[in-house]
Amino acid sequence: MVTGLVNSMRKANAVVHAQLLDLVLGRSGKAYAHWLKNQAVGFADWIGTAVLDPFRGQANAIRDELPETITVLDVFHVLKLGSIVMIRPAVAFRKARGPAWIRQGPAQRNTAEPAHRDTTPRAETDRKAEHEARRRRSKP
Q1: In contact, 31 and 3? CB cutoff 8 Å
Q2: What is the pLDDT of residues 82-139, one digit of tens each?
Q3: 29 in helix, strand or coil?
Q4: Distance CA 34, CA 49 (A)
Q5: In terms of Cα–Cα distance, which of 74, 34, 25 is closest to 53?
Q6: What's residue 42's pLDDT?
Q7: Nearest CA to 81 among 48, 52, 60, 61?
Q8: Bridge-partner residues for 10, per DSSP?
Q9: CA atoms of 60 and 57, how far apart (whole Å)
Q10: N or C: which end of the chain has fewer CB within 10 A?
């Protein structure tokens, strides 16, 4: 795995300029900290904000090597994590309600009571017999 280090600056006309600084082998905080330590004297003086992946190693390296720098999470990961937080409860809710509830329209749903399917052996036999009778009737 490789970690990419990019310098992104917003110019006066609000255009973002990105420049690849280096690629570091590994995804560990040690590799990141080692790269920061090996930069020229004064390199860290112009760094005000560091944009990170949600990876603790990078945050630890910046905290140790660049203590005055503000760390923020990159937009891609903010949106990705936010989507996960929003979607997981909806998926769990649908799974708990069952496929019959999902197929029903909002007007037919009784949201006060969860949709339960009678799974007793007799109910299953009745459903199969009903299905078979419908199939026979539809055949010419």
Answers
A1: yes
A2: 888 888 888 887 777 776 666 666 666 555 555 555 555 666 677 777 878 877 887 7
A3: helix
A4: 19
A5: 74
A6: 85
A7: 52
A8: 16
A9: 5
A10: C
pLDDT at 43 over 60: yes
Give the tokens for residue 5: 């280090």
**Token couple for 37:** 């330590």
Residues, the chain, total?
140
Domain ranges of the chain: 2-77, 98-140
On the question of pLDDT at 67 being above 60, the answer is: yes
What mean pLDDT is reported for the chain?
77
Tokens of 11: 């110019």
Mean pLDDT of 44-53: 81
Nearest to 24 by CA among 15, 16, 33: 33
d(CA 106, CA 26): 50
